[in-house]
């Protein structure tokens, strides 16, 4: 069997759990000569790195800060990656490299499996970084067309605003210090937090008024938001759920086979001391 390579690229990547997921997938699929590694790579380094890969490479997972650079280096782009304006997946194609964004799957899969969330109309989004744009596209795909975006720096929300426009989402921009978090959460169908625990800690009990929440932060655990949601008896999806569910689509891009979901889940749970159940859903 021919040796094949894949890797996660970004900076820093020493902490990445992606090798756990994808090497488990390769093993479960009987791809014993395939390997998945970590490669430290800056945003400016994406283009030369990709250009230097040979035919033994089946794909790359791309994390920050290289997701927009990954989109720019691609010869073809999936519709959802175009909507997000960034790519977390690159795979070779007949004409170069194809870009996709399976973070959209990650958000949807996490919300569906952990919260039972399949559709809604109103959302709250905390933070305007790269994960936020993927969340906007994911929420739009299940009918959430009215989103309140709460940010600490309004000047940094332009990419999220552009993404919302592309995705057909009506975005209401709210400065952090002017937000009525309890009211926003209580009137929402879903809340997604992409901000650090230090930002949510003072308002965690207010955010827990949302019937369904995704906290993309998972270390250290539990986060203040996770604790408040559990105490309130609401549904919670986590960043680990998102990581798992985005990896399924990447695995299928890399291997051409259905993702071995149970094996990938088991490997991720073992690597994180079984701290979370990581349901697969239907």
UniProtKB/TrEMBL annotation:
Pfam families: SDH_C, Shikimate_dh_N
GO molecular-function terms, A-Z: NADP binding; shikimate 3-dehydrogenase (NADP+) activity
Residue ranges of domain Shikimate dehydrogenase substrate binding N-terminal in the record: 8-90
A GO BP entry: chorismate biosynthetic process
Keywords from the UniProt entry: Amino-acid biosynthesis, Aromatic amino acid biosynthesis
Signal peptide annotation: none
Pathway(s) where this gene product acts: Metabolic intermediate biosynthesis; chorismate biosynthesis; chorismate from D-erythrose 4-phosphate and phosphoenolpyruvate: step 4/7
InterPro entries with a match to the protein in the record: Aminoacid_DH-like_N_sf, NAD(P)-bd_dom_sf, SDH_C, Shikimate_DH-bd_N, Shikimate_DH_AroM-type, Shikimate_DH_fam
Keyword Cell membrane set for record: no
Ranges of residues in domain SDH C-terminal: 239-269
Keyword Amino-acid biosynthesis: yes
Gene Ontology CC annotations of this record: cytosol
Cross-referenced NCBIfam families: PRK00258.1-3, Shik-DH-AROM
The name this protein goes by in its record: Shikimate dehydrogenase
């Amino acid at each position: 069997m021919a040796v094949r390579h894949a890797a996660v690229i970004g900076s820093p990547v020493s902490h990445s759990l992606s090798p756990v997921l994808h090497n488990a997938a390769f093993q479960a699929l009987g791809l014993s000569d395939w390997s998945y590694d970590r490669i430290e790579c800056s945003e400016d380094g994406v283009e030369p790195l990709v250009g230097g890969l040979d035919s033994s490479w089946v794909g790359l997972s791309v994390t920050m800060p290289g997701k927009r650079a990954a989109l720019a280096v691609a010869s073809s782009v999936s519709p959802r990656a175009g909507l997000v304006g960034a790519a977390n997946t690159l795979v070779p194609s007949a004409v170069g490299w194809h870009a996709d964004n399976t973070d959209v799957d990650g958000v949807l899969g996490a919300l569906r499996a952990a919260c039972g969330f399949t559709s809604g109309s109103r959302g709250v989004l905390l933070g305007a970084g790269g994960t936020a744009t993927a969340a906007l596209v994911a929420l739009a795909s299940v009918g959430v067309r009215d989103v309140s975006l709460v940010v600490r720096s309004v000047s940094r929300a332009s990419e999220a605003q552009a993404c919302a426009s592309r995705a057909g989402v009506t975005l209401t921009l709210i400065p952090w210090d002017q937000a009525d978090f309890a009211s926003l959460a209580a009137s929402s169908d879903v809340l997604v937090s992409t901000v650090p625990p230090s930002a949510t800690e003072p308002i965690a009990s207010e955010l827990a008024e949302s019937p369904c929440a995704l906290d993309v932060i998972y270390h250290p655990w539990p986060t203040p938001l996770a604790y408040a949601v559990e105490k309130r008896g609401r549904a919670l999806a986590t960043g680990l759920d998102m990581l798992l569910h985005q990896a399924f689509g990447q695995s299928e891009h890399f291997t051409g086979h259905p993702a071995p979901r149970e094996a990938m889940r088991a490997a991720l749970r073992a690597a994180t001391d079984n701290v979370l159940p990581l349901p697969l859903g239907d």
